Structure formats: structure tokens, C-alpha cells
Amino acid sequence: MIVAIDGPAGSGKSTTAKGVAEKLGFLYLDTGAMYRAATAAVLAASIDSDDELAVSDCVETIEIDFDETGRLIFLNGEDVSQTIRGQEVTQNVSTVSAYPQVRKRMVSMQRGIAGHRDSVVEGRDIGTVVFPNADFKFFIVASIEERAERRQKDLAGLGVDQTVIDIVEDLKRRDALDSSRDVSPLTKSEDALEVDTTSMNIKQQIDLIVRHVRDRSARKET
Fold first, then answer.
1. Which of 180, 155, 157, 164 is nearest to 94 (CA)?
2. Which of 51, 52, 79, 128 is such that its CA lies 20 to 30 A from the CA of 183?
3. Residue 96: in which H helix or E strand, if any?
4. What is the pLDDT of residue 106?
5. Residue 53: predicted pLDDT
6. pLDDT below 70 — which residues of the chain?
7. What's the rounded Cα separation, in Å, for the pair 175 and 168?
8. How is 185-206 classified by DSSP, letter by letter?
9. For the chain, what are the domain ranges?
10. Residue 63's closest CA among 74, 50, 52?
11. At 78, is the secondary structure helix, strand, or coil?
12. Going by CATH, does the domain composed of 2-212 fall within 3.40.50.360?
């Protein structure tokens, strides 16, 4: 069974997806982290993120994997779970992830990891491109102010001090890039359930999705 959770940066989809996977006993697959890992590889190789050919060639050579819970991500065998949340990766990931060959490579990896076991897969194009036939699809949204405040707390936990105003501008830039790219743009699948998390806490978000999955699964079985 595949549960697809899509949405823009800072909407709460990552934390929600982790909680849903834990409650359902599924694998958690953070595809956004995979693009961040690819971006980290590009930066480590001192490649300009605007050099599409060099970026694409670099990403073709890397291997990305997760631990059994999906909470730790490994780039060529090295744990980069913290590294990929840094500011430099954040500033370059939308550019790197827009390249067709990068997306093709990532989608292939994603299908290989989650295609043969029950999974909660989170990203921006899961319900539309990676797993268009997913059993359940959710599209999580929130106001940009709320998203910025959430991102500020996440960054603070990593020791990064950034104002909400700066984060709002960064989110606007990333939303524009993610929504306007030619390949696999951020968009809501027609059959996805939209969940506005602006006034919801994480527990409420998780419970809503888990309840929906369990209720629909139970109806299918009867």
C-alpha cells in the first residue's frame, strides 16, 4: 500500500508523514530529503548548481538509501541526515531538483525503495508522477506565515538563526520554482484530499490522515 503525501515546503508534510508511517507501521520515505542529498553531493563536488549537465552527471553516480525507519538518510553510505538541512543546500535544492535527469534518477530510486512494501511517501510530485496509482493521496497546505514560523523553529533546532521575514521570501521563491518547473511541477493531484494544516497541530494532522486511511481500508474489506 502506498500513501502519498504532497505539499509545498514548510506545510508540515514531513513531520506528519513520519507520524503516519509510525502509526500505520509503514516505511517512511522522504523524497525531499533525497533531493537534498543529491544537492549536497553536487555542492561537495564544487559543482555550480546552475550547470545542468555537470549536476546531472554527478547525480547519476550517487547512491541514496535510508535506515529501516526512513528517518536517517545515507549518501554513498554516509549519514547526511543533518547536513542536508543546512542553509546552502536549502538555497540550491530547488534548482537542482528541477533538472529532468535529476528527477528521472530520483524517481527511479524512489520506486525501487518504496515499490515493494507498505510505504508513506512524502514529496511534491508523489501522487502525480512517482506513484500516480497510490492507494491514498493527500495534499497538505498551510499559510505562508505559518510555514515560515515552522521552518524557523526547525532551523533553530539546527542552530541556524533566520528571521521569519527572510524565510517567507525564501518560501515564496521556492514555491515559484517548484510550481513552474517544466518537469514534475508541484501540483495537487485531482484525486488527492487537501488538508489545510494552518490551525492544526501535528497530532491532529497525523490522526486525520490515519483515520482516513483506516476507515477507507476497512470499507474496502467489507
1. 180
2. 79
3. helix 87-97
4. 95
5. 98
6. 221-222
7. 10
8. -S---TTPEEEE-TT--HHHHH
9. 2-212
10. 74
11. strand
12. no
